[in-house]
Design brief:
Helix 10 packs antiparallel against helix 11 (about 405-415) and helix 11 packs antiparallel against helix 12. The chain has a 5-stranded mixed beta barrel. The protein has a 5-stranded antiparallel β-sheet with strand order 8-7-6-9-10. Strands 11-12-13-15-14 form a 5-stranded mixed barrel. The chain has 5 domains: about 35-115, OB fold (Dihydrolipoamide Acetyltransferase, E2P) (Beta Barrel); about 130-205, Nucleic acid-binding proteins (OB fold (Dihydrolipoamide Acetyltransferase, E2P)), CATH 2.40.50; about 220-295, Nucleic acid-binding proteins (OB fold (Dihydrolipoamide Acetyltransferase, E2P), Beta Barrel); about 300-380, OB fold (Dihydrolipoamide Acetyltransferase, E2P) (Beta Barrel); about 385-435, no CATH class. The protein is an alpha+beta fold and about 425 residues long. It has helices at about 10-20, 25-30, 35, 75, 80-85, 110-130, 170-180, 200-220, 300-305, 385-400, 405-415, 420-435, and strands at about 45-55, 60, 70, 90-100, 105-110, 135-140, 145-150, 150-155, 185-190, 195-200, 225-235, 240, 245-250, 270-280, 285-290, 310-320, 325-330, 330-335, 360-365, 370-375.
């Protein structure tokens, strides 16, 4: 059996018959292939390109089109002079397509609109992030302040300004005129490209700044610390003090050891004070302060300042069925028992005294541990205290007559120790020294 060899030529011929011949593209086909692979552009599109030529009337930019894009003279003149001066051939720039094709086949682009686009994008980023930024005040009108953000015009309504930059009446314009050229912390609170609307707020920015400062302050504050601050407001229940980023409250009960009817008796807005940090509630972000804790509690010094038998001035603060309470030196409150109001029998203290009256009273008992003081009205002129009253009166007269404070203190101590002779002797020595 003869070997049959494959017919190679036949196979090649069969393959060639199955593959259609390649026809070269016509000129029309080539013209329809998107400008030979070159880009096409649409109006408003943002493009990047390289400057290829600069003249006094125009700029040419290669953006990958069939011809260089043209930046007209009017657009160049609207650019910031410093920015325009820095532009050089070979620099990369961003532009916005104004006309995809003119009658002459040119593409017209705008660098100014690209700059505006960048400003809008920057404003949108600030709006999304709610970041606080410093804005330059460039002007004002009746409604508020004007801020330039690149080529954008932002507006701060009067209602979005801090209290210190607002006044009632017609004084606002003078305040705002003084702010022109200065920077303020701001936040973007409203943005609408279509309406060309960009609204800013100083209030919102300051609120965020203070919140941030408050967080840092709360982290650093410790109970028992003494801090300096400024009184920011005074109300019926207390006073608020700015500690440098956050306000703490001094409750009316922590303003003074004595009784007060209103915080304005102790503090004024704008006053600088030292305060004691009473409590720090980081969860509720509240700071409790005290003014009176910086001074010794009067009851701790009561035995040093007062003694049994001493005459004092007291203001009647409250009447009860069993007696009357009186406040001494606006700090210590003692009780005049009903039996100590009068030698006559009475059924109620109101028969003898009234709230708000001031009376000379005698201290008849002191218990500093229980914080109690017994007072008497009927014993003020009691003869048994005549010796004590004489010594007090004599010590007071020495204090008035002597200029030597140290000698007066020694004499007063001598009187307190019931050493009248020593007191008289020291007074005589003082007179002799003065005569010499």
């Amino acid at each position: 059996m003869e070997n049959q060899q494959p017919d190679v030529h036949a196979q090649d011929q069969e393959v060639n018959l199955s593959t259609p011949p390649v026809t070269p593209p016509s000129m029309q086909d080539l013209l329809e292939q998107e400008h030979f692979g070159l880009k096409t552009f649409t109006r408003g599109e943002t493009v990047e390109g390289k400057i290829v030529a600069i003249s006094d009337t125009e700029m040419l930019v290669d953006i990958g089109g069939k011809s260089e894009a043209v930046v007209p003279q009017r657009d160049l003149e609207s650019l910031d002079p410093e920015f325009r001066k820095e532009l050089q051939v070979g620099d990369k720039v961003v532009a916005v397509v104004v006309r995809p094709q003119t009658a002459e086949g040119h593409i017209v682009v705008s660098l100014a609109r690209a700059e505006l686009e960048k400003d809008w994008r920057a404003a949108e980023n600030l709006y999304k992030s709610q970041e606080v930024f410093d804005g330059l005040i460039t002007g004002y009108n009746k409604g508020g302040l004007i801020v330039r953000m690149g080529k954008l015009r932002g507006f701060i309504p009067a209602s979005q300004l801090a209290n210190e930059h607002q006044r009632k009446g017609d004084d606002n314009e003078q305040v705002w005129a003084d702010l022109t050229g200065k920077t303020l912390p701001l936040k973007v609170i409203e943005l609408d490209r279509r309406r060309n609307r960009l609204i800013l707020s100083e209030r919102a920015a300051l609120r965020e700044v203070r919140d941030s400062q408050k967080e840092r302050l709360l982290d650093s504050l410790r109970e028992g610390e003494v801090r300096k601050g400024i009184v920011t407001s005074v109300c019926d229940f207390g006073a608020f003090v700015d500690l440098g980023g956050a306000d703490g409250l001094i409750h009316i009960s922590e303003l003074a050891w004595g009784r007060i009817t209103h915080p304005s008796e102790v503090l004024k807005v704008g006053q600088e004070v030292e305060v004691y940090v009473l409590s720090v509630d980081r969860e509720r972000k509240r700071i409790g302060l005290s003014l009176k804790r910086l001074e010794p509690e009067p009851w701790d010094l009561v035995e040093q300042r007062y003694k049994v038998g001493q005459l004092v001035e007291g203001v009647i603060t409250k009447l009860t069925s069993f007696g009357a309470f009186a406040r001494i030196d606006d700090q210590i409150e003692g009780l005049i028992h009903i039996s100590e109001l009068s030698d006559d029998r009475i059924t109620h203290p109101k028969e003898i005294v009234k709230e708000g009256e001031t009376h000379t009273l005698r201290i008849i008992r002191i218990d500093s541990q229980k914080r109690r003081m017994g007072l008497s009205l009927k014993r003020v002129a009691d003869p048994q205290y005549a010796d004590i009253d004489w010594r007090e009166e004599y010590s007071a007269s020495l204090q008035d007559d002597w200029d030597d404070d140290e000698l007066a203190e020694d004499a007063a101590t001598a009187v307190a120790d019931e050493d009248v002779e020593a007191c008289l002797s020291e007074a005589s020595d003082a007179d002799e020294e003065e005569a010499d």
